[in-house]
Design brief:
By secondary structure, the chain is mostly loops. The chain contains no helices and two strands. Bound molecules: zinc ion (ZN).
Length: about 45
C-alpha cells in the first residue's frame, strides 16, 4: 500500500500562523488558536 498525501481544504491564521480544518461549512469567524477576528486579514500599513 502506497502512502499518499491527501489535501484537505483548511484555513490559516494570518496572525498566529495556526492552521486548522473547519468542521462546519460556515466561514470561521475567529481563529481557534488566538481567537482573533482578523485571522484572515494580513497585516497592512493602514
Ligand atoms: Zn490565530
Amino acid at each position: 500500500m502506497a502512502e499518499i498525501k491527501i489535501q484537505v481544504k483548511g484555513y490559516k491564521c494570518e496572525r498566529c500562523g495556526h492552521e486548522w480544518i473547519p468542521r462546519k461549512k460556515e466561514y470561521p469567524i475567529l481563529c481557534p488558536n488566538c481567537k482573533s477576528a482578523y485571522w484572515d486579514k494580513p497585516k497592512k500599513k493602514n
